[in-house]
Amino acid sequence: MGETASIPGLRSLWQKTAVDDRHPALTGAQLTRIDGVWPTDLSGPRAAHGTHVASIVFGQPAGPVTGVAPGCRGLNLPAFSDVSRRSSQLEIARGIELAVQLGAHVINVSGGQMSPS
Predict the structure, then answer these.
(1) How far apart are CA 82 and CA 88, in angstroms?
(2) Long-range contacts of range 104-111, CB-CB < 8 Å, 24 or more positions apart?
(3) Is 85 left (phi over 0), alpha (psi -120 to 50) or beta?
(4) DSSP reduced 3-state for 75
(5) What burial class does residue 3 get, using C-beta atoms within 10 Å of its C-beta: 0-12 exposed, 13-18 middle, 19+ buried?
(6) Cβ–Cβ under 8 Å, residues 13 and 69
(7) Which helix (H) or strand (E) holds 47?
(8) Does residue 46 have a pLDDT over 70?
(9) pLDDT at residue 1 greater than cutoff 50
């Protein structure tokens, strides 16, 4: 994929827009981690996936990845863990409800079913 800034219309989107958040792509991003009943570990494939998704959206121009909305605010509500390896549908629903209460306009849930294969 080419330079992110070359995507048609992306620069104008950046002007209109007012996880492992320690990743260089997210340095300076307006991310707020919301802790609760959700996992707190920041290692393993699940945390890495969340960091990748957050970088696509919130990656900062000075970092290795420029996101599509680097000036937007983001809430990080971890729902999946490599330690516990499961989250209940109720916990995920509570996370979505909390995100809405905190003002989220867009919510991403990257979930799936683990299998031995």
Answers:
(1) 14
(2) 104/75, 108/53, 108/57, 109/79, 110/49, 110/50, 110/53, 110/80, 111/79, 111/80, 111/87
(3) left
(4) strand
(5) exposed
(6) yes
(7) helix 45-58
(8) no
(9) no
Q: Which of 89, 84, 97, 70 has its CA nearest to residue 13?
A: 70
User: Are 31 and 71 in contact, with CB atoms under 8 Å apart?
Assistant: no
Give the integer Cα–Cα distance in Å for 50 and 21: 10
Using CA atoms, how far residue 3 sits from 11, 60, 68, in Å, is 12, 13, 11
Give percent above pLDDT 70 in the chain: 65
Full-model pTM: 0.64
Strand extents, DSSP E, 1-117: 30-33, 73-76
